[in-house]
Amino acid sequence: MSTSPIPEIQTHVDAGVMTLTLNRLERKNSITADMYGAMADALESANHDTAVRVVVIQGHETIFSAGNDIGDFLNRPPATPDAPVFRFLRGISSFPKPIVASVCGPAVGIGTTLLLHCDLVYAGDNAAFSMPFVNLGLCPEAGSSFLAPLLMGHARAAEALLLGEPFLAEAALEMGLANRIVPPAEANALAQRQALKLAAKPLSALMETKRLMKKGNAAMVAERIAEEAVSFGRMLQEPASREAFTAFMEKRKPDFSGL
To answer: Considering only CA atoms, which of 136, 137, 115 is closest in space to residue 58?
Structure first.
């Protein structure tokens, strides 16, 4: 079964697996509010649909996502807790069934932080992960200020979050963000094979195992996502982020002296 509420997010359900494909290659799979809304709706549907046992999130073999669409983001900033991006973050962070991700090429900002909520992540050997929020005058989102240090350790999380420096597939594998590295042309197929293995298992056992694995941090993750959202919204109105976004639009280096 295939449904496409918007063409930029392709939704396909087959053999117990719902696949969400980022399909905006002309804009490097940058994510708009409408795309967040479509993904949030799809996760909510998958949560309540007994025919869906596993969700796969994938991009193209050349790029996963360049992160937020800056223009759309500035025109329609997430102003309330019900904004599409926050609905998506709540949905993916609390999703009770297994989530498998296939990541090739750049995974910027939310392209990396959403992976912290996935259960299995398969990376192409061309994958490049980055969380450059500070470089935009902003703070982390998606609970990453809690989950990244937990996963990577403080020192490597500081490089990723304070310096905003990218890290490649081998580093993601070493720190536990990725399960396996394969050639880019094989990543989506591998994610599908693993999802089908999961879909063949008893759903109640999968869900209870995932619940128990995440229980220790679930409340903290929800609290941190909410706290980050407040800080993120405030920082969007401050001079540093305005300078960063203006510089981005003007294709120049930002000047943060005095900010």
So the answer is: 115
Looking at the chain, which runs of residues are DSSP E strands?
A: 2-6, 9-14, 17-22, 54-58, 99-103, 106-108, 120-124, 128-130, 167-168, 180-182
Query: What digits encode the pLDDT tens for the residues 208-240?
Result: 999 999 999 999 999 999 999 999 989 998 999
Please tell me the distance from the alpha carbon of residue 244 to that of residue 203, in angstroms, as a whole number: 45
SS3 120: strand
The reported pTM is 0.96
* Domain parsing of the chain, residue ranges: 2-183
Fold of 2-183: 2-enoyl-CoA Hydratase; Chain A, domain 1 (3.90.226)
**Spatial contact of 93 and 85, defined as CB atoms under 8 Å apart:** no
Which residues of the chain are under the pLDDT cut of 70? 1-4
